[in-house]
Amino acid sequence: MKEEIKLSVIVLTHNEEPVIADCLESVKWADEIVVVDHGSTDKTLEVVEKFGVKKIVTAPVNSNFSDRRNLGAKEAKGEWLFYVDADERVTSELKEEILSLITNYLPTGKAGKLLITKCVALAIPRKNIRLTKVLYHGGWWPDYVLRLMRKDKLIKWEGELHEQPKIDGDVGKLKEAFIHFSHRGSFEHKLQNTINWSAIEAKRMFDSNHPPMTVS
């Protein structure tokens, strides 16, 4: 009998060697892990393979974040999709909350099990950590991100930067949080990210015919 896949975890990677092992360790309880790699040149893929991930997908060079998340959804076999970034960790409390939800979930109108929620997608709070401290102020908490959803209710991910999923149905919230190690890495790593994001934002403004801006 073919094993049922309830939950697929999808992880996007690009040169994540220092953090990917801890990420994968925190989601090893999932039925399936799908890694979508975007041209890693370090030992990211070597670590992923040693961890035993069976489904590794290579994203096109010119793909954006939405493209990669959509590619992960296409390759995943689970009824539920759970997106976890390489610099995030899933706590045992969040794991138990998710497993309880998907184990007892039934679409509205069906009977036989406890219906915990009629929502088809769930936003999850994040504890953003910088320099070992959790950021609770300045809009950093609870920092909900929409990452858990039924595959058949995900229409698609949209947006080049700060991408969001388009969902067919009700969206709810979970109680337990991710751990997110924000702004990790060297100064050069942060600077390169800023340059990349600025280029994306500039292109978006140009494509939308945004009026010229000056800095005084």
TrEMBL record:
SUPFAM superfamilies: Nucleotide-diphospho-sugar transferases
Glycosyltransferase 2-like domain boundaries: 8-104
Pfam family, one: Glycos_transf_2
CDD domains per UniProt: Beta4Glucosyltransferase (cd02511)
InterPro entries linked to this entry: Glyco_trans_2-like, Nucleotide-diphossugar_trans
Name of the protein this chain belongs to: Glycosyltransferase 2-like domain-containing protein
